[in-house]
Design goal:
This protein has about 450 residues and is an alpha+beta fold. Among the domains are: about 90 residues, Pdz3 Domain (Roll), CATH 2.30.42.10; about 180 residues, 2-enoyl-CoA Hydratase, Chain A, domain 1, CATH 3.90.226. The protein is built from 13 helices and 19 strands. The strands form 4 sheets. Strands 3, 4, 5, 6, 7 and 8 form a 6-stranded antiparallel β-sheet that branches. The protein has a 6-stranded mixed β-sheet with strand order 10-11-12-15-16-19, sandwiched between helices. β13 and β14 form a beta hairpin. It is globular, with a radius of gyration of 26 Å. The N terminus and C terminus are likely disordered.
Amino acid sequence: MNLRTSFTTFMTIALMSAASLSMAIQPNPLIKKDTLATPPKVSEEKNAVNDDDINRFTNTIVLIKDFYVQPVGDKNLLDDAIRGMVSGLDPHSEYLDQDTYKTLLMTTSGEFGGVGIEVTPEFGILKIVTPMDDTPAAKAGIKPGDYIVAIDGKLVSEMTLQNAVDKMRGKEGSNVILTILRKGEKLPLTFKLTRQIIHLASVKSKMLDSNFGYIRITQFQEPTAKLMHDAILALKNQNNGHLDGLILDLRNNPGGLLETAVQVVNNFLDSKNLRNRFKDLIVYTEGRLPETHYNAKASGSDILGGAPMVVLINGGSASASEIVAGALQDYRRALIVGATSFGKGSVQTVIPLDKTHALKLTTALYHTPSGRVIQNVGIVPDVQIEDLQVVKNKDEQDLAMIEPIKEYQLKNHLQGSTTTTSKVDRNDIVLAQTDFQLFQALKILRTIYMLEPTLTKTTKAP
């Protein structure tokens, strides 16, 4: 019974020295710049571990080694024990072995291989938080809120989270088959996806109208705030140095780095004119330990000079996206439009165990400047807009929901110099047919601009 004795010793040492071990732990600066100190002493609890509990644990290991159908190594058992212990805490805490730790660093830097899906465990299967832009998953029509029940015919319920993620990754050009359940569909849907190298271009920009800009952020990575700042300046340069308004699109953005979200908000708040409202906070966190209490305050200037903003969100907007939307909503700097966000308001800190292994632990909860909790609630839009489909119509007789009826659309109308829609009207029709939520957001932005004529003076500020 040497194995049992060794594991009993291991468990006893681990339980007795947990506090001292935590003093040596430093979090990964890529995720959060907090440090964890020794946790406070906890009094005896009813569920305190006793000798019988330790015996049950070690006996389980012995029985697996003696009777399981295939040989299992001690290292695998130990890794699986840690993995199971952490996965039982919440959906976002995770044991990072050598491969997953490396993957985390790759995704933060902006490139990884796979099909481009952000997932979270739910009901024993995988819920899709968002398919990332311009990836095989997005192009195939996979949607936020879909559930993956099988990968290449194997049930997800029989896999760990990491096993499922690993099965979706693979060599560029190889195929993977996902079986998906979707609300409103009676039968499962099957998607055959071809893997590719996923390059995350975190910021995209364009002009929507002659004076209104559009910025899309797909994920909050280290360079995202600077890329967004530069993109807005480029749009302003295209438009004689000013914008009449901006749409910030955070739909299907699963989040990313907390510090980046703060930097993004800082680009739109004029810290000198906040009048200490909400103590100038952008976001703050609260956890069990004092070291997890974090706050970030506005310190920048408004790059738009007060021009109106609309922020687009949906059920795939999570974490850092919700921080940005919540802060701009609390300060009434932007109108939030779309559908209620995902509701991931927890902070994960990466704590190295050694050079190649780490724990990703939930250590705190986010709060918006006004004190709202995001967790399990999300950000509720000021204006709810469903993601509708506008069917193309050759005769353009069913466009009343897109624009007011014009003379040229009436039956037997008199001919004038032209019988076609203007360029602006035509662009609106195309936008409504391709992205109805964005079309509605642009209409709202135009309305805000027209109702606030004084903003035309401030939008030209440097």
